[in-house]
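If you are new to this repository, start here. Below is one unmodified record pulled from the training split, so you can see the exact layout before writing a loader.
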Amino acid sequence: MVLLPRFVEIRSLQAPYPLIQTVVLQNVRHLSHSNNSVILALDNFIHGLFPVPLRVQIVQLTASDNFEETLSLCKLLPPDDSSLRATKEGSIHIRIRGSYD
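And here is the target side for that same chain:
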C-alpha cells in the first residue's frame, strides 16, 4: 500500500499476476493494516478497504455495465479460469453489440 497526497495505491504482489488499484482519497491522516484489510482515516471519515476476489469483481462490474473494467479484470484471471474468462468476455461483447443496436 502506498499513500500519496491525492490517492492510495494498492498493490497485490502475488505471483504471477501483480495488481495495482488506485483509490482517490485526499487528506488521508492515518493508515492501518488489520487482518486482511486496510483502515484509512481522513479528517471526518473512516474507510475500510477489503480484498474482493477477481471473480466477484467481474460479476459486480458486469452487473453495473462497466464493460471495459470487466474485460481488463478478465485478462488477469489465472489460466485455470480460462472457461470463465471466455464465457464472460463473450457475453460482454454480445451486450456491448446489443447496446449499439
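Two things worth knowing about this chain: The radius of gyration is 16 Å. The chain has a mean pLDDT of 81.
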